[in-house]
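#struct-help
A.M.: can someone run this one for me? Single chain, 256 residues.
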Amino acid sequence: MSCRIVSIHCCPVKTLSFQTIKSCNIKKNCGMPNDRIFAFSKGINFEKAKQIEKNPNERKLNNFLTLKNSPILNKYNFRYEKNKLTLIINDKELVSINPDNSENFSLISEKLLELEISLEKPIFFLKNSKFPFYDTSSSNNVMNSISLINLNSIKDLEMKINKELEIQRFRANFYVEGIKAFEERNWINKVIKINNISFKVQSHIPRCVAINLKPKTDNNSLNLLQSLKKNFNHFDMGIYLTALEDGIINVGDRVE
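D.P.: on it. Structure tokens below:
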């Protein structure tokens, strides 16, 4: 069986969202439009928040709300479509805004603080479509990245720990099947093609404790980081890609 894209996902809000789509646009050196273009700051004042919103070189991971530092937020999800961003819990819409209007930004922040009083104030809602809030955005080697995971690598981990895992734990953009477990680790520094669009494979994806969280809960009882280290002697799952061309990717497209 050839290697193919079996699902595509977009995460409009850094760390705190996971949205399934059938196809996506790809922009050279930019990645997937609308992916991680929003974020929430943490532990900094408004002036610093606006600074990291505009300048990716000023960003540090601890400047943002993440599931690593705020696992309670794993109960929620954000959906972004038709220029409307909606905060959701258990399929119930809590608040929606038009993110083109910055006057609406405080509505989302205030709603989160209202729902989760344990969150440290202040938090600020941020937007940057040109320089999204990727974990790699402060790296010298990778800026705007696309993540790809081999489903057979996840299945290999499942067999090792004798537990079924939800793919949402890993929040990748592309999930593929049709290659051996962890075969993608041999692609580093090579160029792959998906639907005739070239991508440079930049690096492995080192994982953090957020993958321990069961989707839609704050249950982190499953220590997947420990399992990765024990069984494979690394903490990686997936690879980062950089798009070398513009194009469109669809579910079912072949990876070469």
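A.M.: thanks! The longest helix spans residues 105-115.
D.P.: also worth noting: Residues 148 and 174 are 5 Å apart (CA to CA).
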